[in-house]
Amino acid sequence: MDATIEEFAAAVGSEGDVAIAGLGTRGGAVGDARRVVAPAGITRIDAAEMVVECGAATPMVELAAALAEHGQTVALPVSGTVGGALAVGQSDITRLAYGPARDVLLQTHYVSAAGKATKAGGPTVKNVSGFDLCRLLVGAHGTLGFFGDVILRTRPIPRHTRWFTSDRDPMELLAALYRPVSVLWNGTTTWVRLDGDARDVSAAAAAFDLADADGPPELPTAHRWSVAPSTLRDALASSTGSFVAEIGVGIVHHTQPGPVKVPDGPTVALHERIKAQFDPTLRLNPGVELYARA
Description:
Blueprint: H1 5-12, E1 18-20, E2 34-36, E3 42-46, E4 51-55, H2 60-68, E5 72-73, H3 82-88, H4 95-98, E6 105-111, E7 117-121, H5 133-137, E8 146-153, E9 155-156, E10 161-166, H6 170-176, E11 182-185, E12 190-195, H7 198-207, E13 211-213, E14 223-226, H8 232-237, E15 243-246, E16 251-254, H9 265-278
Parallel strand pairs: 1-2
Antiparallel strand pairs: 3-4, 4-8, 5-9, 6-7, 6-8, 10-12, 10-13, 11-12, 11-15, 14-16, 15-16
């Protein structure tokens, strides 16, 4: 690892506005606050325990390549940094089968607003107990603390995986197919990923008249919506621009902004109380808004 967690904590310090900087693939830091960079590099891969330990600034491409040598992977998008994906809570398009980003993180040493390195979580699934602080940090955009190093849950790379396309209704395919890994839809075409035994995958493709595809469609990167899966069609009915929706998950990759969601008073009050506990002087990633205000 190119820097220690203690050195990272010292760089964050306890005074002045500070922002975490990565590769900039997910927007990067806001405003002119002082930038800091988390440790990077892979510390260890424990294939038997199915965990990997690395710095938060480790590029996902580097991590994916290293894990592939052990026949494993992590359910995070292969873009940007590990910490960036966790900070924005960006799950991979395999979330339908393999779960959200918050389920990938087992343990982290994060740096608080006081400039101190603090451990949250446990190194293995069986050791995680008590208040699950990791889940609170995932998706908080670095406003509660900066990821320093992390221990992630890995999973085996499937023996056989194939992408298909279809003009059938995506909801119909979601209900009829056996454990699809991903079902994507752009309003006219449906993409399906199936993993498993090659004979089973071929049989499913033949049964539902699925056509082979080179891979998933290109995802719009301008905006990412989150809607209830049951209301996805209604949410997209009046939208303009192009999109790719993750069926059964409720994530929409869109070229246009999504509907503005203004949380109720109790939700806003809860967020503000949590922020006050973790960052009373509002110095971490200043300018980042996690929700719209009325």
